[in-house]
Design goal:
Two copies of one chain form a homodimer.
Chain A lengths: L3 H14 L1 H5 L16 H4 L5 E3 L6 H17 L5 E3 L7 E4 L12 H4 L4 E8 L2 E7 L3 H16 L8 E4 L5 E5 L29 H13 L3 E3 L12 H14 L5 E5 L4 H4 L11 H17 L5 E4 L16 H12 L5 E5 L13 H6 L10 E6 L23 E6 L15 H8 L18 E5 L15 H12 L5 H12 L4 H22 L30 H5 L23 H8 L9 H4 L14 H24 L7 H33 L14 H5 L12
Parallel strand pairs in A: 1-2, 1-3, 3-5, 7-8, 7-14, 8-9, 9-10, 10-11, 11-12, 12-13, 13-14
Antiparallel strand pairs in A: 4-5, 4-6
Helix pairs in contact in A: 1-21, 4-6, 10-11, 13-15, 14-15, 15-16, 16-20, 20-21
Chain lengths: 706, 706
């Protein structure tokens, strides 16, 4: 295994030897929109002209500009705008300007969908990109470019796609001082201070990247919101961003602080049933829509972790959400009301969101969407899906996923989240006998962004894949994580099939590896206090019981796990009866969630035949071993990857392997101390003593916000 | 005048029309090391080979790599390494490997200087870059590349240069959480979290840029220091940066928190005369030098603005500095001990630094350097030089300049600081009858960096010039600000003579404009509380008297200004007698410092024949008018500048003009209210009422650190 210094030296040497690399080092800024030259043989198939409506809307101009940039990069000649189809032309068609002779299934495409088709038109061989709207044409143009970059035969296209959900959002937890809560990629890309006058060129590239995935809305500021974001100066700043994003089909949303009427308006209360409060929000909404006519709406974290909310005034979540909805409704805006709440009482935290929201089903205004995290605790490496999915038939729900890796190694660990997203989206809630996935229960998706000022946007090259996978799956939740990984690799790294296969395999192994070396078998929330970096299963001294890892794992001499069966907290009862029954019994609970639902003795017999204790240790070992594999596989790819990115990823993998060992060693040492059991035969003892792991401190860990 | 939106549209259009621009948009990342192709006629003069010692040291490798990169960019053929001079070769020579027949004035070059000479060697026409050390060769290589980029005839070179000061430092006020105190260019470029394992490619470019100027040391962390930076994990991170910088001749320094022995070592005291404390620092120094063998030393802010220091234990600054010096001396390190102190008593703040430090002259250990800000208050747009310069003959002094524009418009105003640096460096202290400049009193220079994660490094394109000017003048304080501006423009923007002339003229006008629209005639510290953004001359309610603008301007119905004459605080007595006498009398005080030294009636007659009040208003108006000129001159350069940077600078200038008007209007409104005087005839009234200016708030202004 090379050291980092050796890898760097190699990269520098390669850069010197290959001036082509050094002239334009791959720093990751271009994301998956790299448009590198196709093999010469494939370049002949590139179009030479593009037919589109004239004059073109801003969105259509964005589509044509992207095609022009892409075709130039792929090795084609400059793409000329034409009024009539020539051989090899790209034809951008909507019903309003469809060339004669073009018969297409317009109705099936919906307002945002697109169709790509190789066909003959007026005697010419052309490629049609068709949609009912210009934004559909922009999505179709990005899809065509994706096809071109992933080696699809451009002469035999016949594909169509429409988004399954109408709202596909990013949530930025970005503060107004440019710190980012749970951000591991530098500072916020929103330079609030310089806005609205100074519009960083990066904002356009942000919009391009999101449009290429079909993301159509972005919440600019942290859910732990400051009221300032609703003042006139900050609305002007948000409006400037909305202007930049609009051609790319991306609407701006804001996190709203519930106490704004009191804080900004000088009112005595922010009680949602107070007429003056309601009037204040209506006036504020009108003010917002004056500067952002297509403003998307508010995201609200209320009565959660110290945030103000309607319960401060004896009202409930529906009262609060409906008041905001009433203010936004005349303008077409929505309220995304988060269900991430937990009370400080001693009951099972996993059961509290359901307990507060389930009774409100049907009580929300039509333009309220209740936004539910994928799991009931908090973005753990693995959680069962949140029991609210399927339990709110009369309420539109949004699924909130975390793209930024708060609990999954920050931006230094290679953990491809596609399989995790897929696991939730395709989880069967069993609320219908014929099956009903989580994805089928939601009308919107929200992803907590992993974007920052780092040149590579996401803090590491592979973390770009999580942004990509989120966007693609928000558009089409039927996509398989492996297929998404494959097209991302082809666009981002290389199209050479063996290298693509190798990298996809690495990505697909990575999430289970993280589960294994952090929290195997359904364990959860063993992370360090506050920053959530690294292992701290021993922590038992925090103010609230359910902030302590010991609350979640409940390990002692007699066993380990959280009993959520009917013998315990009975949180399983929040699931559909079929699942509730399955999760109530260790024998029918999936092993990867075993200790989530059950507290079991250390000698509980596992499917492998091992005891629970031996199985736990073996999972930790497997996680570490897999990361070692990732390093070796990546090292073997040196010839296939540009030197800078190869060296950078190699350095990150070295960190990940060291930290995977640390996780494994610290957890094994701790659980061994608690259980009093000897290490299973042949197992490597932890490198250090438990005390040495306990004293580690990380005072300046990133992501804790302002 | 174009609006920003029009300018942006123009830039985008230009980018579409000129694919060359859009392929590699100029985003400012390359700084002055752009190496764009020379005119074809000049490319013939580029070398084809480089003769250098083999094997090459890391520093010599850096020099050759830079030459290779530069020559390739300038349009030359790949530069081959050769063992014997061919025609047109570059010959990198030190005494140890000088080719036969080369006779050079080695002794005159000193340890870091270089010589560039076109000559014949062994019958071949070559260019010699000579130095006594490899670092001298690196500096010489950068000088040769600067000559090439600025149109010097490469066939007739005969130049040599040696630094006038041995320590040429940057001071980063960067916190360990990546916020930057007084930083306006994004976050800290030091990604402490990922160090030491992950070394951002940007660190190398940082080192290249600094080496190109001759900067040879960098203090990594804020003078308001955390003790954590001296713990083993952070020392390992600093060591990783030192490894990256070492080939480029840049040593790493750290700001040290004086109370570290108590905070980190668990000692009961940090008293500098306590043997255990002294032992702790010696052990710490040994620990540091073990991982950073060429560690530069400590920078210390002690007993200043709440920082701990020797006075906490009844000791003085010399006691504190000498204890640290004793710990560093065996390893060759230095202590930079800051003289920026002021007590909370009611005396003249401008006089306090001198009062505390002057009595200690001669009391410091030989490896202590007292670091003094250019002026006695705090980096104001204009201050007289600090009276400590010339007053500490037995103590080595460092001049601390602020490159980041805390009081000069952050990174949104175009203010070229070269003239300000020059004004201080060349100020005559009159401590010797034949003249003695400030520059002649110092052995080191320190510049508070304006570097951050923004792609253009400094927050705006023109702020790069302030980094550049600082570095060039730290190497050679005899340089003229105009000449430095010219070479910066040629390397950064264009070599077209009319455009160069126009931009240099803009730069040279800009600092006086800022003085005019902010604090003309010797006014100072009128800026907003805490963040120092914008005008707030009315502030009078801060805890300490000398935090209030009213303390500094003392405007009332009967006059304005701070009386530092013998009739007032008598701070003038801290200057050499000749200057003290000159500054004691308004008639002999330079008008641009008049209100610094004197409190005068509003009808005081000025050189222009105007009253002081009319002159004050006319200076404010002149400042605003000059910024209007800058905008018009820049707009006229559209054809000469690449579209992205042209549009960006235009947007910044629009902000600057609006803020210059704000400054002018708010100050005129305030001083009019205080003086009770009518506006002079023909003068435009302020746009808004004084109350409207007073209520403005800037809650999330950048630069306030963590």
């Amino acid at each position: 295994m090379k050291t980092w210094a050796q890898a760097l030296a190699g990269a520098l040497l390669a850069a010197v030897l290959h001036p082509a690399w050094s002239a334009t080092p791959e720093d990751g800024y271009e994301l998956w929109l790299r448009y590198r030259a196709l093999p010469a043989a494939n370049q002949a198939a590139l179009p030479r002209s593009v037919v589109h409506a004239q004059p073109a809307s801003a969105t259509l101009q964005a589509a044509v500009a992207e095609l022009r940039r892409g075709v130039a990069g792929l090795g084609g000649r400059p793409l000329a705008s034409a009024s009539k189809p020539a051989n090899g032309a790209l034809v951008l068609a909507t019903p309003a300007n469809a060339p004669a002779g073009l018969s297409l299934p317009w109705a099936d495409l919906g307002p945002e969908g697109y169709l790509l088709r190789s066909t003959r038109l007026q005697g010419r061989a052309v490629t049609v990109i068709a949609a009912n709207s210009d934004i559909g044409l922009l999505y179709g143009s990005h899809a065509w470019l994706r096809a071109a970059q992933t080696g699809v035969d451009l002469g035999r296209l016949d594909a169509r796609s429409s988004p399954r959900l109408s709202l596909r959002l990013l949530n930025h937890w970005d503060n107004l001082d440019r710190t980012v809560e749970r951000g591991y990629a530098g500072a916020s890309i929103w330079d609030w201070w310089k806005l609205p006058d100074i519009r960083d060129a990066r904002y356009v590239d942000y919009a391009r990247a999101n449009a290429s995935l079909g993301i159509n809305g972005t919440v600019l500021n942290n859910v732990n919101a400051k009221a300032d974001s609703l003042t006139a100066p900050f609305l002007a700043k948000a409006a400037a961003l909305a202007d930049v994003f609009r051609p790319h089909g991306i609407k701006v949303y804001l996190s709203a602080r519930f106490s704004s009427p009191a804080e900004l308006g000088g009112l005595k209360t922010s009680d949602p049933l107070d007429p003056a409060v309601r009037a204040w929000w209506k006036t504020k909404a009108a003010e917002i829509y004056k500067v952002i006519p297509d403003f998307g709406g508010f995201l609200v974290k209320a009565n959660s972790e110290g945030q103000p909310g309607p319960q401060d005034y004896g009202r409930n979540h529906a009262d609060g959400a409906n008041m905001l909805a009433e203010a936004l409704a005349p303008h077409g805006g929505v309220v995304l009301w988060r269900a991430f709440v937990y009370s400080p009482d001693a009951s099972d935290r996993a059961a509290q969101g359901y307990a507060e929201f389930k009774p409100l089903d049907g009580k929300f205004a039509p333009n309220v969407i209740v936004q539910v995290k994928n799991g009931a605790i908090d973005f753990q490496p693995r959680e069962p899906f949140h029991p609210l999915f399927g339990a709110m038939p009369a309420t539109p729900l949004a699924l909130e996923l975390q793209i930024t890796k708060e609990y999954l190694g920050f931006s230094t660990h290679l953990v491809y989240l596609g399989p995790m997203f897929e696991e939730t989206l395709k989880a069967d809630t069993r609320v219908k006998p014929q099956g009903a996935t989580v994805a089928a229960q939601v009308t919107a998706m929200a992803g907590v962004a992993n974007i920052g000022t780092d040149r590579n946007w996401s803090g590491s090259h592979f973390d770009q894949a999580n942004w990509y996978a989120y966007g693609r799956m928000a558009w089409d939740h039927e996509l398989a994580a492996g297929d998404v990984a494959r097209e991302w690799v082809q666009q981002t790294f290389t199209v050479k099939p063996p290298a693509v296969d190798a990298i996809v395999a690495m990505m697909l192994a990575s999430r289970e590896a993280a589960v294994d070396y952090m929290t195997p078998l359904g364990l959860h929330h063993l992370m360090g206090t506050g920053h959530h970096h690294g292992p701290a299963p021993w922590v038992d001294n925090l103010e609230r019981a359910d902030w302590n890892p010991v609350y979640f794992h409940r390990a002692a001499r007699d066993g380990i796990g959280f009993d959520r069966s009917p013998r315990g907290s009975n949180a399983v009862a929040q699931y559909a009866p079929e699942l509730a029954q399955r999760f109530a019994d260790p024998a029918t609970t999936p092993e990867n969630l075993l200790l989530w639902f059950h507290r079991l003795p250390w000698d509980h017999r596992m499917a492998s035949g091992r005891t629970l204790w031996a199985e736990l240790v073996s999972r930790y070992d497997r996680g570490v071993a897999t990361v070692g594999d990732l390093r070796r596989r990546w090292a073997a790819l040196q010839a296939d990857i540009d030197p800078q990115r190869h060296a950078e990823v190699a350095a990150y993998l070295a960190v990940q392997e060291a930290e995977a060992r640390w996780w494994r060693d610290a957890c094994v040492a701790y659980f061994q101390a608690v259980s009093g059991l000897p290490l299973p035969a042949g197992v490597r003892p932890p490198e250090r003593s438990l005390e040495e792991y306990k004293v580690l401190q990380f005072n300046f860990a990133p992501g804790r916000g302002g």
